[in-house]
Design brief:
10 helices, 336 residues, disordered C terminus, flat, alpha/beta
Length: 336
């Protein structure tokens, strides 16, 4: 070889599991089914899931995404996104004479129920999560007088409670497991009798995707995470990759957002995707990499996932007739 160093083989480490979780799958199918059954338009409050491509695709089929419930004309159908909503939003829909479909992820609903139960028992609830994130807004709305949001370890010093012996923590479902435990440890340092939720709030899919990236990150020069910037679990995957030892990690919505310069001196690229990302976008990235010599793909499997959730029960009803019937009848509750 005349003393020349052989170029290291280029390969891709593909994380498994990646992409759609059961809650996202259920929410996206719910919008598609509602459009099939009831025809367009079906209004959706906020993005059904945090992914640009999914939102654009559903818009083409006739979904209309709105920021507020009062933007939906009365007598229509409105769907609540996978992130969940506060009870006040259900009340707004009733006042607006709207039939509702609740596509809240069952794992988020579980956290809502925990919040209600601990509030009834008069606990101070410390909700670990990102201020302003839709899921946190929805959960807080279940018991606003009992909930304090703790946005990471740096918030812990500011927390005030009424009784240090009646404090419990809950969390947003899409956080970094490690960072959440760091926050919990800091909270326990201040409140030794802090109660933990009956089961882990961070969802199985978020945890599994982070475990896969940890396994992969140590062996990758570069990790590409497919996902949107407003997707909390996708942003966390970039952080986890860097924490696991990847030299660089970037978040992209589409393959064309990858910068060729990122590949300089890189022989191993890790690829994964957030829980709201359809596989077609990952395939686009793998194709882009293959065209640049990264054809060898090795699967890094951290867990097998078989969880599925049944579709929202409201889809079994004639919501168009129900919505029409609401108009002209004062104060009638809507579907769901």
């Amino acid at each position: 070889m005349d003393g020349m160093t052989a170029t290291p083989a280029r390969k891709v480490l593909l994380a498994a599991p990646r992409g759609y979780c059961a809650g996202v799958d259920r929410a996206v199918i719910a919008v598609e089914k509602a459009l099939e059954q009831y025809g367009a338009p079906v209004y959706v409050r906020h993005e059904i899931v945090h992914n640009k491509y999914v939102v654009k695709t559903l818009e083409k089929k006739g979904a209309i995404f709105v920021d507020r419930t009062d933007e939906v004309p009365e007598g229509n159908i409105v769907m609540f996104s996978a992130h969940g909503v506060a009870p006040a939003v259900h009340e707004e829909a009733r006042r607006g004479k709207l039939a509702t479909i609740d596509a809240t992820c069952p794992l988020v609903t579980k956290v809502h129920k925990e919040a209600v139960r601990f509030a009834k028992e008069d606990y101070d609830i410390l909700l670990i999560g990102h201020e302003g994130h839709e899921e946190v807004v929805g959960t807080s709305g279940e018991a606003p007088d009992h909930i304090t949001i703790v946005d990471g370890p740096e918030d812990v010093a500011k927390v005030e409670v009424r009784d240090e012996n009646k404090v419990v923590w809950l969390s947003q479902t899409t956080l970094s497991v490690d960072e959440t435990m760091e926050t919990v440890d800091a909270l326990k340092g201040r409140f030794p009798n802090l109660l933990s939720p009956p089961s882990d709030d961070i969802c199985y899919a978020t945890q599994n995707r982070q475990i896969a990236v940890k396994q992969m990150g140590a062996d990758a020069d570069l990790v590409i995470v497919v996902g949107s910037r407003n997707s909390s679990n996708s942003v966390r995957l970039v952080e986890v990759a860097l924490g696991a030892g990847a030299r660089a990690s970037y978040l992209v919505d589409y393959a064309e957002e990858i910068d060729e310069a990122w590949l300089e001196g890189v022989s191993t690229v890790g690829v994964t995707s957030g829980a709201s990302v359809p596989e077609i976008l990952v395939e686009g990235v793998l194709e882009w990499l293959a065209q640049r010599g990264f054809e060898d793909v090795e699967l890094v499997t951290a867990a097998e996932e078989s969880i599925t959730f049944s579709l929202p029960k409201e889809l079994r009803r004639d919501l168009r007739s129900e919505a029409a019937g609401l108009v002209g009848r004062p104060g009638t509750p809507s579907g769901g």
